[in-house]
Amino acid sequence: MSDIAARVRDLLDRIPTHVTVIAVCKGRSAESVSEAVDAGIAVLGQNYMVDARRIGPTVAGRASVHLIGRLRSHDVRPANLKMFDMLQSVDSLDLATRIDRVSEALGQQMPVLVEVNSGREAQKGGVVPESVEALVREMSGLTHVQVVGLMTMGPLLAEPARYHPYFNETRQLFRHLQSLCLPWVSMTVLSMGTSDSYEVAIEEGATMVRLGTAIFGPR
Length: 219
Ligand SMILES: *Cc1c(COP(=O)(O)O)cnc(C)c1O
Prior knowledge:
The protein is an alpha/beta fold. The chain contains 9 helices and 8 strands. Helix 2 crosses helix 3.
């Protein structure tokens, strides 16, 4: 068994089945990604359009593909959106409105996550926690975009235990939004935790973890 297959099996054995494991593909070969899918990975995370286009054909029909990297407004075009089953990094009404228009033209509804800037870092993408409810309320008027949850990255920390407050605040926000029962909003996905922090994220209620290094090894 390859190292990648062995690591995938081990992770899928240890991570509770209600948590979806996303394999993060940035910087990986199509062959490595294909091995991860063969070993049981059902969802791939792409940071860049070029990676999605390069790896897409190798895994077509065998895995869902989620955009987890920064989404720029000029990237919101039919040819790009067609590659994804979910967009996890929506952080403005302008982006959401563009996605809504393109999805309508494609005759589909796009599931999206609102990215939360839980570390309140100026240089990071995402919406600060205070502004998430207002954005989700505005997005609930867009009928070709369905808000299905929240995603967060959190700051880069040396000790996994220090992620608790960031993931906890995001989970509380998630629960609060669930309680609002807004139209076109179904809060079911909480995407948080990477190779360093996924155990803490799961303790804090993550339903999806995004793993690169833990699956493919160091970059
Ligand atoms: C790279 C990346 C990950 C995975 O990071 P690892 O430390 O390799 O597990 C998860 N989420 C996002 C948004 C990323 O860019």
